[in-house]
Amino acid sequence: MSTVTKIVPFGSGGRIAETARRTLSIAAEGLNALENQFSDREFSANFLRLVGVIMNVRGRLIVTGMGKSGIIARKMTATLTSTGTPAIFLHPADAGHGDLGMITPDDVVLMLSHSGESNELGPIIQYCKRFAIPLLGMTARPHSTVAASSDICILMPDVKEACPNSLAPTTSTTIQMAFGDALAIALMEMRGFSADDFHKFHPNGRLGAQLVKVRELMASGGDVPRVEEDASLLDATIEMTRARLGGTAVVNGKGELIGAFTDGDLRRTVTGTRHMNEPVGRYMTVQPVSVSPEELASEALRLMHDHNITLLFVCEKDRLVGAIHMHDLLHAGVA
């Protein structure tokens, strides 16, 4: 007898898997219903009004919701904040105990409630009406208190819950989450929110590392190994040893990158009949791979992998401005 059979009295592992599949199928139906809502003229118009109000708010977007809707509201707040829309979560249970004071006349409130009738939302609705704070509602009930009280109401599709008792919020919270992402991305694109802006809000962790630019990690100034093309192999070797990057740039009189000489080039040179007083220009790699300081560090790492090298020189309009080693990229968490 399998372990699954022992702990699940109602059937086999196949039935459990079918339940999971059915849950996902119902969720997909809910997402399709939400997508289809955008074909409705009134829904689309309300969405555009919602975006316009949030875009023009002088203060912050106060996002609120109770229970499972509150959890979705927290996630929505985090996504909005990280993509350029100043937002903060207000817990309805705390609102009536002093936290209403966080709402200023410059703010706008976005209220999530599937039923539109959570009692805890009452004080926030009253406060918004008393002080003329714009109230944006998200609910599936067109005749609910939230819908009637909202200046702009987004009517979510009344979807089937995956719960067999139609009680536990499942599909309804899935589409709330998806709508929050759609709203955040729409606002993000309208603001022209770039990868640079995103990195300002995500400087740490793996995600931040993928958005770091070459200029933030490269060696510059006197730390960049360089010799001119008439320098001797000995001079080039000394320069490589000084910088400890495994190679040196070869530049012309204008400081433009014209070649590279690496440890590998040196080994291949000294194993032949070459004399160390010969000019490095004869043995350098012509037109070496280089990268712009404004390029993403992840792109620099890709170039290294593609060309099987560990050192890239950084140029602005052919002029050498820096050098970056694979170790610098890996140490910074770039992958």
Automatic annotation (TrEMBL):
One of its GO terms (molecular function) is carbohydrate derivative binding. Residues 218-278, 284-335 form the CBS domain. Belongs to the SIS family. GutQ/KpsF subfamily. It holds the Pfam family SIS. Its EC number is 5.3.1.13. This is Arabinose-5-phosphate isomerase. Keywords: CBS domain, Isomerase, Metal-binding, Repeat, Zinc. The record marks 68, 120, 161, 202 as: Catalytically relevant. Zn(2+) binds at residue 91. Gene3D superfamilies: CBS-domain (3.10.580.10), Glucose-6-phosphate isomerase like protein, domain 1 (3.40.50.10490). Residues 50-193 form the SIS domain. GO terms for biological process: carbohydrate derivative metabolic process; carbohydrate metabolic process.
